[in-house]
Amino acid sequence: MHDLAYFRANLDEIARRLATRGFALDVKQCQDLDARRRSAITEAEQLKAKRNAESAEIAKLRKQGVDTAEHQQKVREIGTRISELDEQVKALDEEFRQMLAGIPNVPHDSVPEGSGEADNAEVRRWGQAREFDFEPKAHWDLGPELGVLDFERAAKITGARFAVYWGLGARLERALFNFMLDVHTREHGYTEVFPPFMINSASLFGTGQLPKFAEDLFKCENYDLWLAPTAEVPVTNLYREETIDADRLPVRLCAFTSCFRSEAGSYGKDVRGIIRQHQFQKVELVKFTRPEQSYDELEALTRDSEDILQRLGLPYRTVALCTGDLGFSSAKTYDIEVWLPGVSTFREISSCSNFEGFQARRASIRAKAGKGKTEFVHTLNGSGLAVGRTWVAVVENYQQKDGSVIIPEALQPYMNAERITKTGDMR
Predict the structure, then answer these.
(1) Long-range CB contact pairs, 86-89, < 8 A, 24+
(2) pLDDT at residue number 270
(3) Rounded to an integer, what distance in angstroms lies between the CA atom of residue 390 and that of residue 349?
C-alpha cells in the first residue's frame, strides 16, 4: 500500500515511475477523487466556522432576552450538513484506499527499466557449468529411472502437477531443507519459526496477494482460510497490527513450509517434471528492518541465499529484475537462477525482494524507538531456497554416466549416503 498523503502530493511522478513497470495509473481518476474530497473538506470547514459564529450569536441574543429558536434550527441544519460531509470524506478516503490496494509498488531508482524478462540485468555468476562426457538427462527421466520420483501415482491420488518422492529421493528433499535451515540459523543469524500452512484473508491482503491474485491461490470452502502460497505470508503477518521495538531491528526469520499455488495462467508452461507444481517445499527468509538499512539487508539476504548454492557446488547467476518484471509488491528484486544441465538453461531458484514500506502499510507493521516517532518498517523476503528446484539442480548436476547421482558433500551427513543408485524399484 502506498502512503496516502505522499501519493496525493506526487501523482505525476508516481505515474511516471509506475509506467516503467507497465502500469498505467489513472491520474484523472485520482485527481477527481482528491478534488471531491478537498471540496467536501473545504465546505465542512466553512460550515463549522459558520456554526461557531451562529452559536456566538445565539449566546449574545439570549443575554438580550431575544428568542433564538430560528438561529438554533439553523445551527442544527448546519450540523446535519457537516455530518453528511464528514461521511463523504470518509467514503472518499476509503474509495481512494481501495484504489491504492490495486496499484503496485513504485520501483526503486536502482531498478533497470525494461518491459520483461529479456531486459533483466545480470549482476554476477558463480561456478562453471559441468562438462559431461555423456548426454545429461532431465530430472523427469532420471528420477523415475532411479525409482525416487513418481508422477503416475501422484496423478492418481491427486492430479497433475504433483509428485511423490520415494526412498533416497524423499530423503534428499528432507536433507535439503534441514541443511538450509541449519545454515541460516547457525551461521546467517536467522531465527527459525514454523508457522501454519493455512492463512486468513487479512494476511494475504497484508502481503499483497489479495485482492489482485486470488486466482493464484487455493481457498478452503466455507472458511476464511487459504493454503499458503509461500511462507512469506504467515511469517510477515506475525507482526501484523503490531509495533516492534526499533532497537530489535533488523528482525531476521526463516521458515520451512509447504507452499500451494494454482499456477493460474501457466497453462502449457513447465508441464514436465517438478519445476512448477501445485505443492512444493521452500525455506523462506523474511526480514523486518529500519527504512535506512533495508537495501543493505537486501544485499545480505541475497548473499545468504547464494551461499546455499555455493556450499552445494551448484553454478548459478544473479539478475536484477527490470521494472516490467517486478512482482506486484516489490520495489527491487534479485532473482537467483541455478544451472540445469538437463535442459541446458538457468532457472529461477530464489527471488529476493525489498518491499520497502508497501507491505507494512497494508499489514500495519510499525517500529518505535523509545519516545521517538513511530514509522512503518521495511519488509524483505527471499527463498533460501526453493527445495524442489534445488532437488532438481542436485540430481541433474551430479548425475553420472551409469545413471546414479552423487550426493554433494554438504548433504552427505544428512543423507547417510554418498550416492543415489537404482537398487531395485522401491515403488
Answers:
(1) 86/44, 88/36, 88/37, 88/40, 89/37, 89/40, 89/41, 89/44
(2) 67
(3) 7
Domains, the chain, ranges and CATH?
4-100 (1.10.287.40), 117-420 (3.30.930.10)
**pTM of the predicted model as reported, rounded to 2 decimal places:** 0.90
Distance between CA atoms of residues 149 and 171, nearest Å: 12
Rounded-to-integer distance, Cα 223 and Cα 115, Å: 39
Please give the distance of CA 409 from its chain centroid, rounded to a whole number.
Answer: 32
Which residue from 319, 202, 343 is spatially nearest to 270, judged by alpha carbons?
343
- Per-residue pLDDT, averaged over 131-155, amounts to 95
pLDDT in tens, 245-302: 999 999 999 999 999 999 765 556 667 899 999 999 999 999 999 999 999 999 999 9
- Mean model confidence pLDDT for the chain: 93
Percent of the chain that is helix, strand, coil (3-state, to 5): 45, 20, 35
DSSP of 397-422: HTB-TTS-EEPPGGGHHHHT-SEE--
- Which cell goes with 271? 508441464
**Residue 58 binned pLDDT confidence (cut-offs 50, 70, 90):** confident
With contact defined as beta carbons under 8 Å apart, do 417 and 407 qualify?
A: yes
Strand partners, 218: 227
Mind giving me the DSSP string for 55-80? HHHHHHHHHTT---HHHHHHHHHHHH
Distance set, CA 341 to CA 126, 135, 307 (Å): 15, 9, 20
The pLDDT tens digits for 321-342 are 999 999 999 999 999 999 999 9
Contact assessment for residue 381 and residue 166, using Cβ atoms and an 8 Å cutoff = no
Intra-chain end-to-end CA distance of the chain, in Å: 49
Residue type at 256? Answer: F
Q: What is the DSSP letter of 116?
A: S
Phi, psi of 120 (to 5 degrees): -65, 150
